[in-house]
Amino acid sequence: MRLTSRRYIGSKAKLLDWIFSNIDNNVKGNSFFDIFAGTGCVIEKALTSYDSVIINDILSSNKVVYDAFWGDIVIDIDIINKYKLIFNSLDSIIDHNYFSINYGGKYFGVNDSKKIGYIRELIENDFKNNYINKREKNILLASLIYSIDKIANTVGHYEAYRKIEITDNRFKFDLIDIPNKNVNKKVEIYKEDANRLARKIYSDIVFVDPPYNSRQYSRFYHVIENLVEWKKPELFGIALKPAPQNMSEYCRNNAPAVFDDLISNLNCKYIVVTYNNTYNSKSSSSKNKIKLEEILNSLNKRGKTQIFSSDHRFFNAGKTSLSNHKEYLFITEVTCEK
Prior knowledge:
Its EC number is 2.1.1.72. It catalyses: a 2'-deoxyadenosine in DNA + S-adenosyl-L-methionine = an N(6)-methyl-2'-deoxyadenosine in DNA + S-adenosyl-L-homocysteine + H(+). It is an enzyme of class 2 (transferase). The protein has twelve helices and seven strands. By secondary structure, the protein is of the alpha/beta class. The chain folds into two domains: about 1-60 and about 185-215 and about 250-338, Rossmann fold (3-Layer(aba) Sandwich), CATH 3.40.50; about 75-180 and about 220-235, no CATH class. Strands 3-2-1-4-5-7-6 form a seven-stranded mixed beta sheet, with helices on both faces.
């Protein structure tokens, strides 16, 4: 499975050619830093053009994916393939486990959820017993994330499950496409708060695509976060969410100040920001917390800013209605040092 083979809100996969065409024509540099990386598709594209890339996201599940695709630990592909055979030979005669007790019959079929929980426990135990190394573990976990995304009883995220009858026994474990080692490419991977990390990192180009509305990614993807971290917390409510964690300040009312702090502390030659005009959305959760004018004000403090726009169909879970939707790209050449 390719890096972009999973559903993810706000993914820039369909905009990559437009984004990088404008970057290539207006930006010069050898290093590229995606500070809110999400699926990682922007970094995947950047690796074709830049010698050094830095990737960061606050979600544990996303960092697992980055480590799986671009980690530098040597792996044994025969071991990986052996696990694939084991996982796909499981039958439904498996005891209930943490995953199936909580998610079975809701986000996944009962039998499928038993297999998913069994696989996750086996991966954890075999890693603790040194049968697999850290990157082999992350490849198996990333593959599990992508495999369950195909059968999840959701509309593309885990804010809630669909109240319909679930077709069971659909789970199949597929491996991600493990890329060949990027020769002469440097990849740094982080899981940190963006505003804190900005103060510690230099890159010629920094790509900024923060969450702009009130939808917290840690809540939208709580099931896969729980699966990856495997701390087995108590879950609450109809949607079976754990206690809140990794809550982004960009989804709160003080987002403009948080964004301004980030931009003010980036150490780079160019700042590239993406933004879409959902500020007047009918759905309160879809309304942007930062206005376009506030984005520009922050960027113009650092240098000269160019603006590009593109028509783009955005993610819609059913409540958001917005005509003339546009995606904006801001490119700022930094002239004012932090």
